[in-house]
Amino acid sequence: MSISSASPSKLDRKQSKDLRNVLVTFDAYEPSKEQEDRVAVLQQLNCLAEQWILDLQNQSESELMVTQHQACCKIVTFGSYRLGVNFRGGDIDALLIAPKQIDRVDFFTSFFDMLQSHPSITDLRAIEEAYVPVMKFKFGTIEIDLLFAQLALPSIPEDLTLSDVGLLKDLDFKCVKSLNGCRVAEDILSLVPNHESFRHALMAIKLWAKRKGLYSSIVGFLGGVSWAILMARVCQLYPKAAPATLVQKFFLIFDNWKWPTPIMLRHPEDIPSADLALPEWDPRKSLSDSLQHMPILTPTYPIRNTAFNVNVSNLDVLLREFKQGHAVCEDVFSGKADWNSLFEPSDFFHRYKHYIIIQAMGADKKGHLEWSGLVESKIRILIEKLEACVNIKCAHINPIGYCHVDRETYPFCTQWVLGLGIKKPADPKQAVTLDLTEPVERFVSIVYQRAANNSKVSASTRVKTYHVKRKELSQYLSCDILEQGSRKRKRS
What we know:
This protein is α+β, with helices and mostly antiparallel strands. The protein has helices at residues 10-25, 32-59, 79-83, 104-116, 173-191, 195-211, 224-237, 243-255, 287-290, 312-333, 348-351, 365-377, 379-387, 437-452, 479-482; strands at 74-78, 92-98, 121-127, 134-139, 142-150, 354-361, 392-403, 413-422, 462-469. Helix content is 40%, strand content 15%. The chain is globular and about 75 Å long.
């Protein structure tokens, strides 16, 4: 049920035009040439995949072989690209759907080798241990995250649609998770009343989230699908609203939302499951689900919480930014500010007195890509350990991986910065002591334990941490980075 079905007013349309103009100044919309390049790259990738499967089948004695005139596989897109909200220079989330005679081992071995030998493909790495196993690479200048799913079909029809939940029957759960990205994107589009308004409003929210350092599920903030579901819910509540109004209502709603009340685009009983009994989000049956702080649920079976990574500190940061965004939007609509105010950069480097620098260092470019990805995936563990410390109020991670200020000495070094909010003592005269030894040592130990089980990680890689004061950040980061968001703020 909607809150308002009112059509846009003259002010709404003007604000939407102004908002779009500001997005253009931030280069949010990709030019037509880049759009054409993406289409061409996806076509080339599909041809490579088809040739790979035909080669595999020619090497086997399978009775399930298909001819070159049949569609032996299919590459489909999801995420921001499928929703039509990808930024200039953004990556493409894609899924390779293969027939039953091709398995995941083939994908991560022979297809990996084929991609590795292709002259236009660089920075290739396989992350088989991820929650959803993925290959990441650049095809020319375009970054691609490629998943794999095997269907119980001898060949893949050209007109295949993934909406039929029966396709999930008898699949291994990794394939189910891989397929869900595409199925969720299609369901979001089917549940949004006005695609154009949804896309422009979501572009604005994504830009805001990136500028505020809130766009990253891997370190415990929100990823693209979470932001899309939040905006889709706003569109359902205001089905005829203009993009600027949707942005304003977005902040109004989520500034006042009572978490952990879940966000749902449709009720679970309305989501077809075909009685498959797959694992899904259910706080009545799962203790871990009941403890999650920010349930933003997929409208697709099996239901999952897209924001399961959000921890206490990051939820506090999100709520603070929702409140600030709400205030800015009210000022914009009352004529006291313009839309540029919404996209001011985060004041992260001016907010705290204490910071932790996390460094991932490798010996070469390829090894460093693997290593930095592993370290980044474990930062949430450090945050959770720090939250348990007596004097820590908040452990706020900046999701951007920065180069070292001294790139000649540290050419293969990625750094993340974590701001520490400190609890004020009951007695103002009492000095606050910070003992970060146990959480930091535990984090480093876990990272090295995972590295020992990963053959792709070089023995020469290192992870280091440093507890520094704000004035010492310049030893690690450039002045241009540190001066971002330098408006006056009370430090924590």
